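Have a close read of this protein, sequence plus structure tokens, and explain what the tokens say about the fold. Thanks in advance:
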Amino acid sequence: MLSEKGEEMNPWKSKKHKNIYKDVNVRQGISLRFEKDVHEDVKNLFKRFTDWLRANYDFPIRVTIYVKASETITLQNGCIAWGSFRYFDTFDEPYIRIPTGDYLEQARIVGEDTALEAILSSLVHELTHYFQWVNQFEQTDRGSEWQANFYRYRIIDLFLNENGGLK
């Protein structure tokens, strides 16, 4: 069990957002939007994972996850990425984009579970950025990325321990 101080430093458990959103009428929660060619294994995993997230974490302003059928996504600056978190104003709904189009190729090379975990890892990384943003964590870019990488494995381990696997 984390101490109160430990929870303040954990973007997934921080309650700073309660003061930010207490008197504001915004939609809450997490939602999924799948492109039509996303593989069924990926869809099923994401649905199970978001059900688990809803039961375990607060989403004080709705975040929509767009699950793409492409292998990568292109950011506004032209860079290629394996996930993105985009936000605007504190009270405008942010969104996440996760490409999954290389799932079958990766499953053939490294196995289905490893390929699914890699995709889920990208999602958890971006969700950590959501929690950093919603709780107004002030960090350097390097610190923010370090923290997102740190929590990606911890959150996946919690999910796997409670759900017995990826499928």
In short: The mean pLDDT is 91. Strands lie at 30-34, 63-68, 73-74, 80-81, 84-86, 95-99. Residues 105 and 155 are 25 Å apart (CA to CA).
